[in-house]
Amino acid sequence: MPEQLLWGMEVFMNGLMAGVLYALVALGFVLIFKASGIFNFSQGVMALFAALTLVGIMEGRVPFSHLINAVFGTSVHHFGWNVPAFAAILLTMVVMVALAWMVNRFIFRHLVGQEPIILFMATIGLAYFLEGFGDIMWGSDIKKLDVGLPQGINGFIDEITFNLLGYGFFIDNLDLWATFIAVLLVIALVMFAQYSKHGRAMRAVADDHQAALSVGINLNFIWVMVWSLAGFVALVAGIMWGTKSGVQFSLSLIALKALPVLMLGGFTSIPGAIVGGLIIGVGEKLFEFIVGPMVGGATENWFAYVLALIFLVFRPQGLFGEKIIERV
Amino acid sequence: MKMKLATLALGAALAAGPALAELTFPSLSYRTGPYAANGIPFADGYADYFTLLNERDGGIGGEKINLIECETGYNTEKGVECYEATKGSGALLYQPLSTGITYQLIPKATADGIPVHSMGYGRTSAKNGKVFSHIFNYPVNYWDGASVGIKHLLDLNDGDLSGKKVALVYHNSAYGKEPIRTLEELAKKHGYELTLLAVDHPGQEQKSQWLQIRRERPDYVLMWGWGVMNQVAIQEAVNIRFPMENFIGIWWSGSENDVKPAGAGADGYKALAFHNVGSDFPIFDDLKTHVVDKGLAAGAGDQLGTVLYNRGLYAAMLAAEAAKTAQEIHDTSNITAAMMRDGMESLEITEEKMATLGMPNFGPEFTVTCENHGGDGLGAVTQWDANAEKWTLITDFVQSDQDVLQPLIEEDSAAYAAENDIEERCN
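^ Those are the sequences you sent over. The predicted structure of the assembly is below.
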């Protein structure tokens, strides 16, 4: 088999894996938009905040220690214990649920009935608040995150492709785990939405707020639940991206990777986020592989947004989004 | 009532103001935002050195130092705002700590007559003092860095790089592209093959670049990265099992922040440096006695001895030595920005001077002149020991290839002079 074709296949597979990671971020956007019509600008910062909280709990860091030390002249930094990863993930989820409740109680309850642009602006404010709050709470140093996920080349795939094709493919173990977890996450979310009482209520709210209210669905509860689910998705994305690069404030920028995925897959479709992520991941990697060397490289971000723009022109609702119909 | 309030406010301002402070050094720091992890240690080191001088020596030449910290968030617009807000305070020197801010300040500070020191960043051709009257970039610039990196590779290969493959992984920005011309010129001279691999900002996703490195198997990889790009690149290099001792980053890719997330895999990774590492210097005893133990350390006081803290410390030391030189030249302790520029233009850093300051072999020896605002271009190589979690200086400070670099600097600065109608000085 020609060398270029083998390399192209390797790039294709890595593109799929990268796409899954993009889709993980996009999922959080979709959940909130689907249930409340809010485009949550703070989704990337939520991933950062979740990852910061997870590391903080795992390492037994004292939250707000810099502030406490500055005010009281103390020197406390750590509780002196470490929390196992699984327990820390559960505790972080408790924090994310509390955050979801507070976001709804103190922000969105006051904005019911406002224009979508107002709600969007509120999420921008929330993003900046959370970023600063996370900084004060956990400090701005770069934190190593290790929840036990393996990293590095998968030896099995390397060996088997080498034996079959004469060239060992590079697939990162972390990406394989991300794919596995993302598949589980999507199955769980779809099952929840289709078959659980609260999932059906969530879909009813997504279809029509007023109608959902009229049959006795508690809108506030559903919104808190959806923001909690988005917080959980943010935590998963934060773990995957934070394991790759360390937990640091640039993590909030991963939202930029989710936007073309959303434009392509549609803002209201969970499968759309996954398929959109895969198309963007594969497309940008293959484009960089084939065209990048001719134009000096660094084409990935450009390509992702241009591809999304082309899709928007021909299918504004995205691949799987609901068709926008407004009747007079 | 209004009058009373105004009087009270004025009184409060005077009481709060640094009444004894005579020498004002603004610190354009970034303790917030995506790059805060790098900005904090530098700002702490910069502040702690001046605090040490105030506490131990009573300032510089008997004049207390007034450090004004202004938060830029590593944002160019905010950096310029900081400059405008503080320049009227009697500012003697600006260290913008960002190439973007430096480019904006070059014409502004020159017009205002305030010197700018962009140490290891900024516009490389500002080394030519005949064109850039108020801009200094001693002791090294990016082109020196590229050359020192190649010199290190020459040392590893008995002076012969012909047939070797060198890849540059760079941040796709003006900063990241800085070394390309130099590396291309050096490739012609030494016969190595150069591959350029651009990484999109911010650099969280680099799979394409590292798959290419895995396919093409370059002998060495150089990196011009910043922020999250560094951590991801080092992790990706670990993932593809690239030999870390053949992976060399510029000095902005060589702090503890960059290697720690990759854990043991980062062992052996190298980075260029223009100052020494660690805290095994007498000055750290003084810092402990006069700054830390008195509760005067900047920030959380937990950054002493880290690479970027040492960089801030070194930057402050160079500023203080230039101020001392200015005081000697003009025979006054109360210097102005114009006098400070004269001091910088006559700065001479010797081993003897650094040893006296408690910083023996902390940086290279160099001399600044009217024509040469960039020093002698000496840099070194450091290496990360993941087990001990510390950097070690593994080479001496060696000079960059001036035969290749000087013509490039002349060419670039001449173009700037022509564009801006600047008449050469120092004649």
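Residues 1-21 of chain B have pLDDT under 50 and may be disordered. Residues 19-140+281-377+407-419 of chain B form a domain with the Rossmann fold fold (CATH 3.40.50.2300).

Shout if you want it in another format.
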